[in-house]
């Protein structure tokens, strides 16, 4: 998990990882049978939000280790710009 001392940059890196995980989980959710979450237009509308929420929770619990290298690159880019 990323230390909270790094503030907004760490949150942005974790948010990036959450978005990536949400995109990775989307094809898995497509394999879940229609109607598994109640069915109908509501399920169709809410399924992408559920997928993103799962990605956010996974990233918050440590994710797949993507946030740390993204954060390092963000900090290196900031330092390079002065």
Essential attributes:
82 residues, mainly alpha, 0% strand, disordered N terminus
Topology record:
Layout (H helix, E strand, L loop, with lengths): L6 H24 L9 H21 L6 H15 L1
Helix pairs in contact: 1-2, 1-3
Write a structural description.
By secondary structure, the chain is mainly α. It has one domain. The chain is 73% helix and 0% strand. It contains 3 helices and no strands. Helix 1 crosses helix 2. The longest helix has 24 residues. It is elongated, with a radius of gyration of 16 Å. The N terminus is likely disordered.
Secondary-structure element order, N to C: HHH
Structural class: mainly alpha
The low-confidence parts are 1-5
- Overall, the morphology is elongated
**Assembly classification:** single chain
Strand content is: under 5%
Strand element count: 0
Quick summary of this structure?
This protein is an all-alpha fold and 82 residues long.
